[in-house]
């Protein structure tokens, strides 16, 4: 069958994207789903910095590639071997397929699935196959989803069935921003009621982490960003304290305000400076978590002695250390009960034809989440 898709044919691409047009809207070929695969009619797909990092070259991927990984839709057809999902079911896509058999999967850590990571790096589905093409040219999949398209074929292990009757523009957010941000709080940090949390970088992931901290019962929630308008939004979402990251005295002011630092500091900016700030504001015995993907060449520097003398802990958090099949329904249930208002992350929506202009808005920090609707 044919489908429209936003295809990236070279990387990196210079800004502004409204002029350089890195993504071309093309009608390409989509093969039927193979064994353990689904054909999904995409309802909505969110723009994320993980997409942007492929466009600007920060995270090189094979091209041509049909982008988009934060998506939700309705199953149109299933391949052989799929017994627990049927046509008509609504699904949210996960950007890390999990094989269920490698050591990380066996340990309950599907975000670290070895075959899934290999497939994502190569631009294939979990099966190793590519279902997209344009004439004789094979088109790569983005993180097993390629959601900036009318239709997508994905692995069964890249999709989570949802029962809730959510609007697609809201359901899509649970596939990346909510998984990564809320998961960093409840899974990686395991925040308990009464503890203190700081979030550095208030994009979609960072603000989702803030919402997660509120839902977890954190008593002190510190929000830090370079933009005053994002700090204002953070206050409306439950932050008890806000600080401008550009303030040279920010770290000292935060430590004073929190009586020595926070229990958990979450870096969600993908920035070395943001991580180092997070480490500086973590209390003795506290945990510093990095949930933002920095450039592959970036290196961090922290005082080694503090790891021992202050019994510090540092952890990475990929996909919020989530088990998508478990956590996406849990997070949706919290949203439906009014405890996780992720709809507040939605800045705007628009058609596929305006995707390049929308990436300029994301790159300039003018939107939290812009969602493409179909």
TrEMBL record:
Residues 18-372 form the Enoyl reductase (ER) domain. GO terms for cellular component: cytosol. The keyword Oxidoreductase applies. Its cofactor is Zn(2+). It holds the Pfam family ADH_zinc_N. The chain crosses the membrane at residues 198-218. One of its GO terms (biological process) is formaldehyde catabolic process. The keyword Transmembrane applies. Keywords: Membrane, Metal-binding, NAD, Oxidoreductase, Transmembrane, Transmembrane helix, Zinc. SMART domains: PKS_ER. GO terms for molecular function: S-(hydroxymethyl)glutathione dehydrogenase [NAD(P)+] activity; zinc ion binding. Belongs to the zinc-containing alcohol dehydrogenase family. PANTHER family: ALCOHOL DEHYDROGENASE (PTHR43880), ALCOHOL DEHYDROGENASE CLASS-3 (PTHR43880:SF12). This is Putative zinc-type alcohol dehydrogenase transmembrane protein. The lineage of its organism: Bacteria, Pseudomonadati, Pseudomonadota, Alphaproteobacteria, Hyphomicrobiales.
